[in-house]
Amino acid sequence: MSSLTFIGFGEAGIAFAAAGARAYDVKTEDPATAAEKCADYKAVGVIGCASAAEALAGAETIFCLVTADKVPLVSHDCAPFLPLNSLWFDMNSVAPETKRAAARVIEAAGGRYVDVAVLAPVHPLRFAVPLLVSGPHAGVARERLAAVGFTNVIIVEGGVGKASAIKMIRSVMVKGLEALTAEWILAAEAAGIRDEAVAALNASWPGTDWAAKADYNLERMLTHGIRRAAEMDEVVKTLDALGTGSAMTRGTVQRQRALGALGLSAPHTLNDKLAVLLGRERDQAA
Question: Which residues form the Phosphogluconate dehydrogenase NAD-binding putative C-terminal domain (predicted)?
Answer without folding.
Answer: 188-258
